[in-house]
Amino acid sequence: AAPLLLACALVLRLSEGPGVVFRQERIGKDGRPFTLLKFRTHRPVDERESATRWSVADERRMNPFCRFLRRTSLDELLQLWNVFRGDMSLVGPRPERPYFVTQFSQCYPGYAARHRMRAGITGLAQVSGLRGDTSIEDRARYDNAYIDNWSLWQDVCILLRTAAAVVRSTGS
Length: 172
Fold this sequence. Notes:
Blueprint: H1 2-16, E1 21-27, E2 33-39, H2 47-52, H3 64-72, H4 79-85, E3 88-91, H5 98-107, E4 119-122, H6 124-127, H7 136-148, H8 152-167
Parallel strand pairs: 3-4
Antiparallel strand pairs: 1-2
């Protein structure tokens, strides 16, 4: 993945200027915070907006390369470093920002239970079409079903479905 990471970073640096890495606090296994890494495809107004606004990216203002990174989910590729560090796994429930974890845990039964496993770059909910502005309740249901029925074979299937979605540029 290193050549692809370098190519993305270089094109992003040339097209958008300095600061190609986006860092954001997320909640992982057992409710512990960690710093998630992504390629920066947008610039939030400030830290508060980044932490508390559901979607800070205005795709109309993004350059074509940034839109491509988002559409293909290649902006998430830096999370391989989070996997290497032990903050995340390849497959598991997607991590969320602390502000939303608090809100969702109060509103959706079972939401907090998804933190009993390490967060993942991709997951069952994502390959089932539950990403972006979709039902949090459904995501929590899929995440908990994934955890309750975990198997290595299921992880392999999710990774293959994610790869197919990335190749088709539909995201994962």
